[in-house]
């Protein structure tokens, strides 16, 4: 009980100093809990949606793969309408109705503005059925009754200002058709952002499936008392086993959930990874806080030991304080995490993905994980200072000798740090010289971990040398005040090293990702310049529909237009080894639109009848040479014997591993309705007509807003923009770790000011002004921040350069160091130091001189 009382007294006596450490715990726990609540809420939203929209049993074509499939022919797989009557004859069937559904559509208004979601959610077109009426309610007008009528969901109508009577054009592979809005339907469950349009059944069949008398699936409802599993079995018996794909409501929901779950897992674990970085940085803050608190209470600890307290009791007293810190920070963090999740939901809603707080999901495991992590991490971080406090001897403490300084321990620490750093450098070198990216990535991961730990351990040793160099360049300009700031930073190298290490971690990741991102852009730009001969590239999120293809081909001032299609196939090598793959079918002009180097044969020969090319990796793995014959089984078509006309070099990023053949060869072995629409198209301007051709293509594609035409400059800019957006998102997540690191600098300076109260009073007494005192503290903060930045940026550039060497094995051969970013971050670190020192410097300047001198 005495230990608890002492711990409580000390905790609340230093509550201001504990606050910053508590904020670090709070932020880290909030990020973890916010991530879990956000992803659990999204899963709940989708689970409710899938459960509500899935019929008791779904009958679909055997070849249908799932809702996210990209039909090779551009049209959804279908089954005959006669199957509906067959299903109705099965025992236990209450009702069965045919449904039409397609995600390969684009809906535009009268001004050709895309009505689709901007959040990545699909546009879904289909017929209005009783199964849809389970999850949607017609709130305005009526359901479509003819080919000129359409009904839209209320969310899409609100977002784009649509109302009854407005005209919409729907673009599918079967052509364009227009219809007026006669109805608006609202979701009874949360709509995550999809745009939905409904037509009457004959129109949906003709325009989406290509002909009437077909459905993409059949929704089956069970009679009372008939289980979904039994209903599925009865329908299977009626239709014949294996004839069609049958799924119960649970199986359909599970498949949909799996498709969404993979994406959600990526978001979840990425965000948790950044939370882990914040926790790691927070550890340094907590270690520094308790180390300094222990040092300031040396005499008090000595008195406790002198009156009979054991080492364990002293140790336990510090750990109890850490537990209190962890509990308070974690509890607040859990609450902040729920708020963060709600904020993320609002942000996603503004971006077009509707998430309702009605579905807010806080599982009991979320606060449990947050509390456990926060408390355990805090206690573990405080263990070393607590152990050090327990080692203070009573006599040394009463003489105010401070915590024991073990020279041998410091030497051992430096030796271990150097060994780990050396091992990490060796691992990075091995990764950079690896022959395969897979092997090198393991060495890269090991090198990153080892060098990071090594730099953290050897930080106090590096602090002496690095701080002196920085001081010579920066602090000496400020005369005696600068020299005093330098000595203060060097007074406790361990503390400076730990404070700088916290900032080092975040900036190392920033530098690494900046180098990788810049190198990716530079490599891709270089390859575009060397390889792409086409003037224009036309593509979109969906395959290019035939009517858009025709419009592109008829655009003026073009020398040629190249079609580019991708089809599924199974390739069997001469050695008998088979693999599911894809073949790229293109016009022969593609050989000039994309200049691919061949290691054997001529690329033009791959476009001859019954010929194709393969990549060097596939050729090497299967012992294939030019002139050999592959067996190619086209999905939905025939099996053919195709001769290898060329082998292309896989040391590229564009079309790496592509297997080329002519469109004529593809058309020979695939039925017309199975020929895939173009994935992408290329165009070459006629001599001297580049600007006119570009303007004409832009004008042509105004009526098809789902596609974009880019020249090489546009393409490079788009690439930079995409990578830049990704990096900005990562930097935003890393900002949490940097904020925690800044709190560490603030805490270190605040405690350092308290620790030097008497010294500050003496300096003020002999003539140092408040302004000079504040400047000294600010300069000390700046040099600590620059120390951490220098280590972090240097370490990060090393990681990034190694990662680029691995990417070079995948064709990204250009290493580019983004010096403006690196220099900008380094300079910004100085301002971070200034910001961190504002409060400690202000408090130091307000000290009463006489009281400060009288302080023990």
Summarize the helices and strands and which ones pair or pack.
Layout lengths: L1 H12 L1 H39 L3 E4 L18 E2 L1 H7 L4 E7 L1 E2 L3 E3 L14 E5 L2 H4 L2 E6 L7 E5 H7 L6 E6 L2 E13 L7 E5 L1 H9 L4 E2 L1 E6 L5 H12 L5 E4 H48 L1 H9 L4 H40 L14 H26 L3 H5 L8 H26 L4 H37 L5 H13 L1 H39 L4 E5 L5 H8 L4 E15 L5 E9 L3 H4 L4 E4 L1 H4 L4 E5 H7 L6 E6 L4 E10 L11 E3 H7 L10 E6 L4 H11 L6 E5 H44 L1 H9 L4 H39 L10 H18 L1 H8 L3 H6 L2
Parallel strand pairs: 6-11, 8-10, 17-22, 19-21
Antiparallel strand pairs: 1-13, 1-14, 2-12, 3-13, 4-6, 5-9, 7-10, 8-11, 9-10, 15-23, 15-24, 16-17, 16-20, 16-23, 18-21, 20-21
Helix pairs in contact: 1-10, 2-8, 2-10, 2-11, 2-23, 8-11, 8-16, 8-23, 10-11, 13-14, 13-25, 14-15, 14-16, 14-25, 15-25, 16-23, 16-25, 23-25, 23-27, 25-26, 25-27
3D architecture notes:
Belongs to the ABC-4 integral membrane protein family. Residues 274-394, 733-848 form the ABC3 transporter permease C-terminal domain. The chain crosses the membrane at residues 269-295, 318-344, 364-386, 411-432, 452-478, 499-522, 729-754, 775-797, 817-839. Strands 15, 16, 17, 18, 19, 20, 21, 22, 23 and 24 form a ten-stranded mixed β-sheet that branches. Strands 4, 5, 6, 7, 8, 9, 10 and 11 form an eight-stranded mixed β-sheet that branches. The chain has a four-stranded antiparallel β-sheet with strand order 3-13-1-14. The protein contains 28 helices and 24 strands. The chain folds into four domains: 1-53 and 249-404, no CATH class; 62-243, no CATH class; 459-533 and 711-856, no CATH class; 543-705, no CATH class. Residues 400-405 have low confidence and may be disordered.
């Amino acid at each position: 009980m005495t230990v608890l009382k002492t711990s409580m007294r000390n905790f609340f006596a230093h509550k201001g100093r504990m606050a910053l450490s508590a904020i670090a715990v709070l932020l880290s726990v909030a990020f973890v809990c916010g991530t879990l609540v956000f992803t659990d809420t999204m899963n709940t939203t989708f689970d409710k949606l899938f459960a509500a929209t899935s019929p008791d049993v779904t009958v679909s074509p055997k070849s249908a793969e799932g809702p996210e499939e990209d039909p090779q022919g551009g049209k959804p797989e279908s089954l005959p309408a006669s199957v509906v009557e067959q299903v109705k004859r099965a025992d236990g069937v209450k009702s069965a109705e045919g449904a039409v559904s397609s995600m390969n559509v684009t809906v535009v208004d009268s001004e050709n503005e895309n009505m689709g979601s901007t959040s990545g959610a699909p546009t879904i077109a289909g017929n209005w059925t009783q199964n849809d009426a389970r999850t949607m309610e017609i709130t305005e007008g009526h359901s479509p009754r003819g080919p000129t009528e359409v009904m839209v969901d209320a969310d899409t109508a609100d977002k784009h200002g649509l109302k009854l009577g407005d005209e919409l054009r729907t673009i599918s592979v079967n052509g364009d058709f227009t219809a007026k809005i006669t109805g608006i339907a609202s979701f009874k469950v949360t709509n995550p952002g999809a745009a939905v349009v409904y037509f009457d059944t004959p129109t949906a069949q003709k325009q989406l499936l290509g002909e009437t008398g077909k459905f993409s699936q059949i929704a089956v409802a069970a009679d009372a008392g008939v289980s979904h599993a039994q209903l599925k079995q009865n329908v299977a018996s009626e239709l014949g086993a294996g004839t069609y794909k049958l799924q119960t409501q649970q199986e359909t929901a599970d498949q949909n959930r799996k498709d969404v779950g993979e994406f959600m897992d990526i978001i979840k674990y990425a965000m948790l990874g950044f939370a882990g970085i914040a926790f790691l940085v927070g550890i340094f803050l907590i270690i520094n806080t308790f180390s300094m608190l222990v040092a300031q209470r040396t005499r008090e600890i000595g008195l406790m030991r002198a009156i009979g307290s054991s080492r364990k009791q002293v140790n336990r007293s510090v750990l109890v304080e850490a537990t209190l810190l962890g509990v308070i920070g974690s509890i607040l963090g859990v609450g902040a995490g729920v708020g963060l999740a709600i904020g993320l939901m609002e942000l996603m809603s503004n971006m077009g993905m509707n998430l309702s707080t009605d579905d807010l999901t806080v599982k009991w495991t979320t606060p449990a994980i947050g509390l456990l992590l926060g408390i355990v991490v805090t206690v573990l971080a405080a263990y070393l200072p607590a152990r050090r406090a327990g080692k203070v001897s009573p006599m040394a403490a009463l003489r105010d000798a401070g915590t024991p300084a073990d020279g041998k321990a410091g030497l051992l620490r430096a030796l271990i740090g150097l060994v780990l750093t050396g091992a990490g450098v060796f691992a990075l070198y091995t990764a950079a010289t690896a022959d395969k990216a897979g092997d090198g990535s393991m060495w890269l991961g090991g090198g990153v971990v080892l060098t990071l730990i090594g730099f953290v351990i050897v930080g106090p040793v590096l602090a002496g040398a690095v701080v002196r160099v920085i001081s010579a360049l920066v602090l000496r300009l400020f005369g005696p005040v600068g020299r005093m700031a330098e000595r203060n930073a060097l007074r406790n190298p361990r503390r400076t090293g730990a404070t700088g290490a916290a900032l080092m971690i975040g900036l190392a990741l920033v530098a690494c990702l900046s180098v990788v991102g810049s190198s990716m852009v530079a490599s891709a730009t270089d390859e575009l310049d060397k390889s792409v001969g086409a003037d224009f590239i036309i593509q979109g999120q969906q395959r290019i529909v035939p009517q858009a293809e025709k419009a592109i081909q008829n655009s003026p001032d073009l020398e040629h237009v190249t079609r580019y299609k991708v089809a599924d196939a199974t390739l069997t090598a001469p050695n008998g080894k088979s693999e599911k793959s894809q073949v790229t079918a293109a016009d022969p002009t593609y050989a000039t639109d994309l200049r691919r180097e061949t290691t054997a044969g001529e690329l033009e020969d791959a476009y001859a009848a019954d010929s194709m090319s393969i990549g060097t990796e596939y050729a090497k793995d299967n012992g294939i040479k030019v002139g050999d014959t592959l067996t190619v089984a086209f999905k939905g078509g025939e099996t053919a014997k195709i001769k290898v006309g060329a082998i292309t070099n896989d040391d590229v990023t564009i079309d790496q591993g592509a297997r080329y053949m002519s469109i004529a060869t593809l058309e020979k072995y695939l039925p017309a309705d199975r020929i895939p629409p173009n994935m992408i198209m290329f165009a070459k301007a006629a001599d001297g007509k580049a600007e006119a051709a570009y303007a004409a293509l832009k004008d042509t594609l105004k009526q098809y807003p789902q596609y974009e035409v880019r020249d090489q400059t546009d393409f490079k800019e788009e690439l930079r923009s995409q990578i830049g957006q990704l990096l900005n998102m990562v930097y935003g997540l890393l900002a949490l770790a940097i904020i925690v690191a800044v709190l560490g600098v603030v805490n270190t300076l605040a405690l350092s000011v308290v620790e030097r109260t008497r010294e500050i009073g003496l300096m003020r007494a002999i003539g140092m002004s408040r302004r000079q005192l504040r400047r000294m503290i600010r300069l000390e903060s700046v040099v600590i921040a620059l120390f951490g930045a220098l280590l972090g940026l240097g370490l990060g550039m090393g990681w990034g350069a190694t990662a680029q060497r691995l990417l070079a094995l995948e064709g990204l051969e250009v290493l580019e160091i983004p010096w403006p970013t690196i220099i900008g971050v380094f300079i910004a670190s100085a301002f971070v130091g200034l910001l961190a020192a504002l409060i400690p410097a202000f408090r130091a300047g307000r000290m009463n001189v006489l009281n400060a001198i009288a302080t023990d």
